[in-house]
User: Which sequence fits this backbone?
């Protein structure tokens, strides 16, 4: 346990660990120090200077985000001098900032806007020295608007240290310092994996998703189109906080009602295809185990992780499950199975996905995902875009009466819903893989060893007739590197992997922390969302994917059985090797298992 020290903040005596910074100590005791570049999830960059405080005995203010506490320290967080200093800093930032708050995607969520209001800064009274630069529209997922960038460095930190993707960097020095991609080639020509963590941590909306709201409204309002919508597990647990409800509340039936009121023709659920994914991916794992295969199976649900693998670990592509993500499975089935069952021309079907993930926009545009004969998923809306549509439609989400989804591809089990939390895919797979191997039901289905926010997690599951199933989980791509390096080393030295089955989610916390989730979230909020999904899992009658009656029906009426030829044609895919410098496809990756 860390040694504690005595400090005084604004006259309040506090006893805090000596490992803390001033801002951490203040936050722990509910004392607010204004900040802009600082975020509790990230290492401090000390770029903005807004968090300055006065220390007794120090002639100059100190930055609270990077100054450690010390015994006897007396700290002042609010004085005439500090207010003037902070106000001047914010005025300087705003003078070189495109102030278009009413039309900005981050309006009312912008930390700069909030800070300026709190300090009484009037942007209209300031000189404008901004030299406007082109907006980077090259990426299918993320828009980078340098005119709104304040060079706080959060995006660089999360991209390089948390995700280890290295798509963003600081360029130039001094007054000319700015954030850019390598050689200013744009996001699409960088190793960006489209995870969108930069958009979540950006305080001003300089990084945001490429919106497809207008295209979706156009489809909804076209009487010739039949618009089908699916919603990822994490959506139902992240809407509540935006509409004044308790954080972590599951709002599935309110979500369905809102989608129906917006005008979608068929309201289904990605959780259904999450259960289907378990059947396809689980069967793939079991077949490899029975064959004595030494190479592991790695999950394939996270598109940011898939592009990361294609860029940095293409030699392990044959270890990655060929099963498509739940979103892409739904997309292809909406224009095959659903179209057939409903007697609708698939050319008239528009398949829309509501996802917590900016990378899903990239996934939907992958050219190989057209096994229906059309683009399988037409449009992807992030949680933020869906929230904007709810508000555009004038829906009182908190008070709207609950409704059920439409039948066909919407029923889901607890295994499907926990896909949204890190470790959830692994836990769901174990629940069914046990039965697929032994023919018996797993009784202790709460696999708590793979839950929680530890960066990497391991578990050993004894399976009669097989032995010990060794599994591992990683969330956040820097943690994924740890597992991938261990797998690569094991295969290169002993020919075996340390684990049989591995789950990787690109975003810290899993999909509940996706790049398309509401602005202003942190790891603590992601944990609460995950708890909400586990709570729903506990309450559902069916908690194992192989018990889902709609999944059983689709195999009986359409697919045949898991991993059947038709299932492989529609529900499985292949991967590519990409350039580390540009993220562009170099060649198709080698696949040994299909």
Assistant:
């Amino acid at each position: 346990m860390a040694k504690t020290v005595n400090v005084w903040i604004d006259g309040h005596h506090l006893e805090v660990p000596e490992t803390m910074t001033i801002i951490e100590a203040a936050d722990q005791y509910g004392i607010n120090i204004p900040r802009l570049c600082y975020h509790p999830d990230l290492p401090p960059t000390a770029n903005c200077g807004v968090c300055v405080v006065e220390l007794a005995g120090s002639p100059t203010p100190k930055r609270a985000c990077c100054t450690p506490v010390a015994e006897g320290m007396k700290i002042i967080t609010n004085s005439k001098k500090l207010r003037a200093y902070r106000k001047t800093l914010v005025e300087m930032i705003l003078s070189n900032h495109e102030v278009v708050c009413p039309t900005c995607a981050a309006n009312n969520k912008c930390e700069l806007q909030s800070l300026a209001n709190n300090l009484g800064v009037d942007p209209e009274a300031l000189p404008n020295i901004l030299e406007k630069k082109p907006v980077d529209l090259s990426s299918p997922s993320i828009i980078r608007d340098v005119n709104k960038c304040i060079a706080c460095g959060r995006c660089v930190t999360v991209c390089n240290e948390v995700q280890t993707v290295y798509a963003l960097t600081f360029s130039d020095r001094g007054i000319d310092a700015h954030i850019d991609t390598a050689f200013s080639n744009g996001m699409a020509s960088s190793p960006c994996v489209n995870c969108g963590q930069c958009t979540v941590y950006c305080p001003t909306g300089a990084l945001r998703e490429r919106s497809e709201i207008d295209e979706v409204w156009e489809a909804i309002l076209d009487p010739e189109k039949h618009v089908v919508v699916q919603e990822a597990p994490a959506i139902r647990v992240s809407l509540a906080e935006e509409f004044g409800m308790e954080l972590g509340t599951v709002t599935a039936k309110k979500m369905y009602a809102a989608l129906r009121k917006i005008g979608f023709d068929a309201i289904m659920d990605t959780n259904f295809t999450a259960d289907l994914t378990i059947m396809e991916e689980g069967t793939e794992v079991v077949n490899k185990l029975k064959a004595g295969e030494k190479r592991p199976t790695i999950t394939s649900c996270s598109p940011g992780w898939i592009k990361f693998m294609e860029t940095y670990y293409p030699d392990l592509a044959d270890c990655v499950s060929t099963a498509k993500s739940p979103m892409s499975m739904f997309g292809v089935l909406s224009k095959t199975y659903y179209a057939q069952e409903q007697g609708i021309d698939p050319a008239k079907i528009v398949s829309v996905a509501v996802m917590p993930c900016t990378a899903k926009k990239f996934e939907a545009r992958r050219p190989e995902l057209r096994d229906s004969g059309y683009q399988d998923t037409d449009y992807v809306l992030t949680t933020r875009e869906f929230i904007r549509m709810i508000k555009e439609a004038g829906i009182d989400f908190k008070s709207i009466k609950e409704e059920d989804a439409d039948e066909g591809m919407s029923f889901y089990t607890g295994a499907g819903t926990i896909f949204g939390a890190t470790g959830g895919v692994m836990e769901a797979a174990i629940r069914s893989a046990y039965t697929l191997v032994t023919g018996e039901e797993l009784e202790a289905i709460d696999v708590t060893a793979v839950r929680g926010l530890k960066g990497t997690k391991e578990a050993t599951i004894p399976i009669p007739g097989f032995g010990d199933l060794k599994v591992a989980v990683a969330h956040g791509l820097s943690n994924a590197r740890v597992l991938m390096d261990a797998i690569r080393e094991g295969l290169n030295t002993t020919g075996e992997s340390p684990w049989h089955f591995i789950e990787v989610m690109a975003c810290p916390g899993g999909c509940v922390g996706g790049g398309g989730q509401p602005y202003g979230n942190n790891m603590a909020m992601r944990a609460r969302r995950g708890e909400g999904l586990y709570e729903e899992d506990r309450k559902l009658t069916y908690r194992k994917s192989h018990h889902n009656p709609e999944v059983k029906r689709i195999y009986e009426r359409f697919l045949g059985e898991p991993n059947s030829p038709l299932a492989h044609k529609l529900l499985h895919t292949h991967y590519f090797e990409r350039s580390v410098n540009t993220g562009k496809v170099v060649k198709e990756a080698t696949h040994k298992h299909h």
User: Anything to note?
Assistant: The two ends are 50 Å apart (CA to CA). The chain has three domains: 4-78, 90-209, 214-588. The chain has a mean pLDDT of 95. The first helix runs from residue 22 to 28.
